[in-house]
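1st attempt posting a full record on here, be nice pls
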Amino acid sequence: MNFNFKEIATLSMILFAVIDVVGSLPILLDLQSKVGKIQSEKATIVSGVIMIVFMFVGEQILNLIGIDVSSFAIAGSFIIFFLALEMILGIKFYKEETAATASVVPIAFPLIAGTGTLTTLLSLRAEYVHIENIIVAILINLIVVYIVLKNTHRLEKILGVGGINILRKVFGIILLAIAVKLFRTHAGI
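the predicted structure (as C-alpha cells):
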C-alpha cells in the first residue's frame, strides 16, 4: 500500500469539485420538497459502488466498444467544461428530469456518480499510479455526500441562497481548470 496524503488530498478536492454535492443543494432541496425524505444511505452506497466499479472496469468497457481512455478523457473534459459553465454562468445546457420519488436513480446517478465523475475517475486512474489513493478519495467524498444528503435543510439555513451560489461559482471555476488540464494532458498540448 502506497498511501500518499498529498495525493489523497489532491484527488479528494478534484472529486469534490466534480461531484459538487454542495452545488447540487438546490436540486436536492427541490427533490426533497416534492417527495419527502431522501434516502441518504442508499444513494451514497449506490453511487460509491458505481464509481468504484467503473474505475476498475470502465476501461475494459470502453475497449470493448473501441474507445481508448484518452479519447474518453477528452470527451469527458468537454462534459466537465460544460458543467463548469453551467455552474459559473447559471446556464442550463441540458434539461433535467425530476423523478417522481427520491430514489437512487436521480441522486446516485446521474447527480453524484454522473458522467463527469466517471470520466474524471478514469482520467485519474490513467494519471495516478496508486489506485488505493483514488479509493480513499472516493470514500472521503462519499462521507461528504452522505453528510450533505442527511443535512440538506440545515445546510440551506447555514449557507443561505447567496452562500450556495458563491460555492457553486467557486467550484465551477475549479472544474473549468480541471477540464482544461484534462484536455491538455490527453490531447498532448
